[in-house]
Design brief:
125 residues, alpha/beta, five-stranded parallel beta sheet, 5 helices, 43% helix, globular, CheY-like_superfamily, Bact_response_regulator, Sig_transdc_resp-reg_receiver, phosphoprotein, Response regulator
């Protein structure tokens, strides 16, 4: 992976995912994409040793929510940086979010997601 950190990015909206993924790659990260919570959990189970951070939408249709994905991720790696993105669930973050996480409200500028995960990477190192 040439020293770059792998970020798991779970988002069910392809246009949002593509734009934010480009910003993350431009910021020096490798990105592993999941289009729903079930895929994200599978990828966490398969590749947790490689994954250095998680960005997850809160609502991704049927299946696990971003809250559930992040809790699963933290059960595998208690220190994994987590960024939530949401259009309508930010108020639930205090009750549903994992400790030492960040929420980014949609619509967001792609640079906001990059800044959020980067700041958590600094804190956790």
């Amino acid at each position: 992976m040439s020293g770059s950190i792998l970020i798991l990015f779970a988002e069910d909206e392809p246009l949002i995912q593509s734009a934010a993924e480009d910003a993350l790659v431009d910021g020096g990260y490798h990105v592993l994409a999941a289009s729903n919570g079930q895929d994200a959990i599978r990828l966490l189970d398969e590749r947790i040793e490689e994954i250095g951070g998680l960005i997850t939408d809160v609502r991704m249709g049927a299946g696990p929510t971003g809250w559930e994905v992040a809790r699963h991720a933290r059960s595998l790696n208690p220190e994994l940086p987590v960024v939530y993105t949401t259009g309508d669930s930010a108020a639930d973050w205090a009750a549903e979010g994992v400790p030492k996480s960040v929420v980014v409200q949609k619509p967001y500028a792609d640079a906001q997601v990059l800044a959020a995960i980067s700041s958590l990477m600094i804190i956790s190192s």
